[in-house]
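Reminder to self: tokens first, then the designed residues, so the page reads top to bottom the way the pipeline ran.
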């Protein structure tokens, strides 16, 4: 049942020290049908009420300073925003265009913002969300690809009209000693990052080693699944203040080795990725004798530059 107020027009007012308008849905469940719009002490509120007009939740409150809006407050466990309701018939809310959802009591739980591709004319991209922003830890955000993978680049602005770039650094540390007693190259445990197809990265790898003179060491970069369109890397095998051997290589599977005592290894260079996948250095003895080891606390840092 509806009611009309004769003579109500754009100039009509509800006037008072605390003007209120009550709306009641008669077929709602108990304590779920009464709402009011309340204006008091400079705050306009939309509130839920009990059936007896008792206190509910002031879920929307707006305050003003003169003619300007000074504050908008929402008190709710979830917010759904729909920028374009053309897909409103879709069963899943996530399929609606312009859909943003913040979940959690008082928004204090884990959250993320996923953004889908759009052609600028209201047509969603077929691949779904491809940019994601989420909380990493206290004081930190992380950026990802929309599928929960957060080792990807986030670009603020189109490449042709860019205002700033944020390139994530991919880091790995070997937390356990890696021993070799033969000359078969093997991926170093813990030293792995995932690279994106078509991207270009600068990388630095530093390994602390303990290699006997009779066994020595050798390394390459062929321990992962990523492939390179081009790569240029410098391999340096050190003992004390001297580079015992070094080489510049242009393939992931080109190794550099020496049969001599080695206490650290440095590898640095650039890679243009063909097929995306893992990027892992490999290590072995140069001659099978004793045990050659990559000690703990080696590191790998990779920065995407294009």
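Designed residues (306 positions):
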């Amino acid at each position: 049942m509806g009611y009309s107020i004769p003579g109500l027009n754009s100039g009509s007012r509800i006037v008072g020290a605390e003007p209120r308008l009550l709306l009641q849905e008669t077929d709602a469940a108990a304590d779920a049908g009464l709402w009011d719009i309340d204006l008091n002490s400079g705050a306009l509120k939309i509130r839920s009420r009990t059936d007896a007009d008792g206190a509910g939740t002031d879920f929307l409150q707006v305050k003003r300073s003169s003619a300007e809006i000074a504050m908008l407050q929402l008190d709710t466990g979830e917010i759904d925003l729909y920028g374009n309701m053309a897909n409103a018939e879709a069963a899943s809310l996530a399929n609606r265009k312009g859909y943003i959802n913040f979940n959690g009591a008082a928004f204090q739980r884990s959250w993320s913002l996923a953004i889908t591709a759009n052609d600028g004319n209201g047509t969603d991209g077929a691949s779904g969300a491809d940019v994601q922003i989420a909380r990493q830890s206290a004081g930190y955000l992380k950026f990802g690809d929309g599928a929960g993978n957060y080792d990807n680049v986030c670009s603020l602005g189109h490449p042709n009209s860019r205002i700033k770039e944020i390139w994530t650094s991919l880091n790995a540390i070997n937390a356990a000693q890696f021993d070799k007693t033969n000359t078969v190259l093997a991926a170093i445990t813990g030293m792995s990052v995932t690279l994106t197809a078509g991207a270009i990265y600068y990388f630095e790898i530093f390994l602390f080693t303990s290699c006997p003179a009779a066994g020595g060491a050798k390394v390459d970069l062929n321990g992962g699944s990523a492939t390179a369109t081009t790569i240029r890397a410098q391999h340096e095998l050190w003992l004390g203040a001297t580079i015992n051997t070094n080489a510049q290589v242009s393939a992931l599977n080109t190794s550099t080795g020496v049969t001599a005592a080695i206490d650290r290894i440095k590898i640095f260079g650039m890679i243009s990725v063909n097929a995306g996948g893992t990027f892992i250095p490999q290590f072995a003895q140069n001659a099978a004798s004793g045990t050659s080891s990559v000690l703990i606390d080696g590191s790998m840092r990779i920065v995407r530059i294009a």
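The first strand starts at residue 20 and ends at 24.
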